[in-house]
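pipeline/complex-builder :: batch 7 item 3
reading input block
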Amino acid sequence: MTTTLTNSSGDAPPKTARVRRSKAARAGGQLHAGPAAYAVLVLFTLGSLFPLVWTAIAASRDNNRLAQTPPPFWFGSNLMHNLRIAWTDANLGKAFLNTTIVAGVSATTIVFLSTVAGFAFAKLRFRGRNGLMLVVIGTMMVPPQLSIIPLYMMVAKLNWSDQLQAVILPSLVSAFGVFFMRQYLLQALPDELIEAARVDGASSWRVVWHVVFPAARPAMAVLGMLMFVQSWNDFLWPFLVLSQNGNPTVQVAIAGLGRGFTPDQSLIMAGALLGTLPLLLVFAIFGKQIVGGIMQGAVKG
Amino acid sequence: MSRHDTAASPVQDRGAAPGRGPAAPAPPADETHRTRLSRRWQRDMRWSPYAFVSPFFLLFAAFGLFPLIYTGWASLHTVELTAPTDMQWAGLHNYTRIFDDDFFWNAAKNTLTIGIISTVPQLLMAMGLAHLLNYKLRGSTFFRVAMLAPYATSIAAASLVFVLLFGRDYGVINWALHFVGVDKVDWQNDKWSSQIAVSSVVIWRWTGYNALIYLAAMQAIPQDLYESAALDGANRWQQFFHVTVPQLRPTILFTTVVSTIGASQLFGEPLMFDSIKGASGGTDHQFQTLGLYLYEQGWVNQHLGRASAIAWTMFLILILIGVVNYVISRRLRASS
């Protein structure tokens, strides 16, 4: 699975770009990066990573050490202790389970619905196709935050507060997902493949199942990861409907840690670290594919 | 496993297809069967596209469009958080209340300034980074993934860490600043510095992501444009400004629109930045955004009707921004 991913989404664009650029170098265009370019890039990399590393450092100290100058820049011995307390204090076990369920269901559904809809927009002919696609893109411009009050009323009416379906249901579609899959299938799924299946008498649904899904698998994996990250980090809506008692997502739990009356900073950092680690792991393993996916989704707008 | 088995079946079918081609004479029984099949086929070709796209539109209608419109309806009523289903007609009262409220205008101003402080440097840096990443680089994948790491960090986690980093007495940033002779900055209570601090969370989380988007667009620029520019004697800087930037115009517009929408909705970062005051955005509301003001009115002061009026106002502001953007982009296209 990893190899198909790398081939189709991670590697291909950089490779062609590299070939082109070496030609340009001869023509006097863009060249190898000089030391100054590397210096700036390293600086920004440090800026990107420092807060994350420092979270771990602060989580390995105690509250007293964090109230001294100069601030600590190396690990202390308190990490395990803090992680354990943060885990129980913030109910993180439950929170991880909840977030995994929410993000898993949401990402899977989005990937599935987006692939089917993206296929229709990319490869099927029907009246109103372009207009509907414009509507999809238009919905990207409407921030979901503006819809929260009626949603909150609905949740209150249905007695759904503190229940996971209140968070899951509004997050089952993504206009970006539809757009992303459409762009991918436009270039990755040859018309002949669909024609061939049609000639054999395959219904549209069979075409989706036997032709589209296999062809779209790499993009589906990337979209799934992007949506999982987004759902994992979603804050406002879970914060509103899950914060009452005892059934939080990870983000709600972490936010709760910060709002104690006598905040223990090292504990808060331990919670932040725990909440971030799973995604950082995903990025460490699939970073290349995720980068490729973001770049692929970006280009052909 | 099973998927592989079934995936192979169309290929087998195709092998068998010539056998039952249209040329072969068919018995009459088969004829009716075939017309029935072809009718089903037509129905399938005609309606299945709509079936495929309808889940998106149904779910969006239920959880996006309907609530958005209903927000407008609720904004004309008095609704309290304690009894969210009990609505009483109030006309435009909610709107006059918020337009008379100094905190609304304060929040609007803060949203604008924080939006500018967080968006402009972010996109400029992203553009520069993309340009550097577009060079032939050793370890380019590492740089890209590392710059995307903040994107993996949640708003809650990032804000909590930045609160500490920006601490007045023991924070890393003030400690670093004292080496260049800057006195302790009160990143939380001072208006401008607190807005800069809140913006820096946004900048940190999104710069790498936008750099990748610019990079993707840069790689799609046809190379011969650079070659002919080079033949005309343009140096690297001139190539950047006369080839790269104009070619990126649609992407720049896209990222600007997305960042503007994001900035107008800013909520989590300012909420978490003051753990005690929370919804008021600092002791003097110095970094309270419209999103936070909405939350304060709706969930702290428990006036959902008034919060709806704020949401609807924000929506109208967005439409206004959209129209302005459209006009500008048409002007730009006309001029180029």
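note: Residues 1-26 of chain B have pLDDT under 50 and may be disordered.
queue -> next item
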